[in-house]
Design a protein that fits this description.
Elements: H1 8-30, H2 35-50, H3 54-67, H4 71-84, H5 87-103, H6 107-120, E1 125-131, H7 133-136, E2 142-145, E3 148-150, E4 159-161, E5 164-171, E6 178-184, E7 190-195, H8 215-222, H9 228-261, E8 265-266, E9 269-270, H10 272-308, E10 317-321, E11 324-328
Parallel strand pairs: 1-7
Antiparallel strand pairs: 1-4, 2-3, 2-5, 5-6, 8-9, 10-11
């Protein structure tokens, strides 16, 4: 009986077919998205683009790309962002499309993406974030733009940005944060935000407790005789003076925050920074009012107790009991 040999070409074809099936299985397992939903969103986004409704079209195309990150979906999203006026986003996406199309050996798409990206360059706006050398040298300093961290390599670099408001924040442990808002118009422009030297947060002074003194010691210090009521009066008066101090500090803070808000407000129309400063000014003014009233009441009570508690010429003094005032001998 003669054995039948299988041609080598059959083995090669079988191996190639098996490889294709394995590759498709791996791609399917690695894809966490929903191709069906992505396709539906893509079609709806394209239809909205044709109607000129880019505000609704772009989010749908963005979600379609998130569910199924295909190069064609990214290309459509870039074109939508361009027509929406988000030229920086469109430029970045087009450059990514060109790179992916090159790897996918799709020369027509690569050429179209590069040509469109090159045409967008003249419509780009740029934002440069410069950092004061002293701030840059601080341990743990962090700079962000629109919530995205900017590493030291990005400081001083012109970075394309979309039109609209952009917020730059600088933070470092032990220092007051710095916040700046810049508005980029629709026309090409180049803006710069300079992060200044950060101000250290002032240390809160710790007040050592005063040594406890006897009534005799307090009386000798004040040059008067202290009775229990007078001692209470001194305590109330001290608390009143402290309340006036808090009121003064809060009033000055309210004035300062209100002045800062004027930089970012036009009448009652405020940017986020201006609105925050005005809210802080209102809060500080409320604290100042309450503290001033409390200080007046405490100080008046202290004075009254100090006067009432004066000893008589024979050494007796007035004390308070649940039934009212009574004389108490000092001996």
């Amino acid at each position: 009986m003669q054995a039948v040999r299988t041609p080598l070409s059959v083995y090669c074809a079988f191996a190639a077919l098996l490889f294709v099936f394995l590759l498709a299985g791996v791609a399917s397992a690695a894809s966490p998205g929903d191709p069906a939903a992505a396709e539906a969103l893509f079609a709806e986004g394209q239809a909205l683009m044709e109607q000129g409704d880019y505000e609704k079209a772009c989010p749908k195309l963005e979600e379609s790309y998130r569910l199924d990150p295909a190069t064609g979906a990214l290309h459509a999203l870039a074109l939508c962002h361009e027509r929406q006026g988000r030229f920086a986003s469109a430029w970045v996406e087009l450059m990514d499309v060109a790179s992916r199309a090159n790897a996918e050996r799709y020369p027509e798409r690569e050429s179209a993406a590069r040509e469109r990206a090159e045409a967008l360059k003249k419509r780009l706006s740029f934002l440069t974030v410069q950092v004061d050398p002293d701030t840059a040298a601080l341990a743990g300093v962090g700079i962000s733009r629109d919530g995205v961290p900017l590493g030291p390599a990005a400081w001083g670099t012109r970075i394309p940005v979309d039109p609209g408001w952009h917020v730059v924040i600088a933070k470092a442990p032990g220092y007051e944060p710095y916040r700046a808002t810049v508005t980029i118009g629709n026309e090409p422009s180049s803006e710069t935000v300079v992060v200044p030297r950060l101000r250290a947060i002032p240390a809160v002074p710790t007040v050592a407790p005063a040594p406890r003194a006897s009534n005799e010691g307090r009386a000798e210090l004040l040059g008067v005789e202290l009775t229990p009521l007078r001692t209470a009066g001194v305590a109330f008066g001290t608390a009143g003076v402290a309340s006036f101090g808090i009121a003064t500090f809060s009033a000055l803070r309210a004035l300062a925050k209100n002045a800062e808000s004027e930089k970012n407000c036009q009448g009652d129309d405020c940017e986020p920074d201006g609105a925050a400063d005005r809210a802080a000014a209102v809060e500080a003014a409320s604290i100042a009012t309450v503290s001033a009233i409390a200080g007046g009441v405490l100080l008046a009570t202290g004075v009254a107790l100090f006067v009432i508690g004066a000893p008589d010429s024979d050494g007796a003094s007035v004390s308070v009991t649940p039934s009212g005032l009574r004389l108490r001998s000092a001996f």
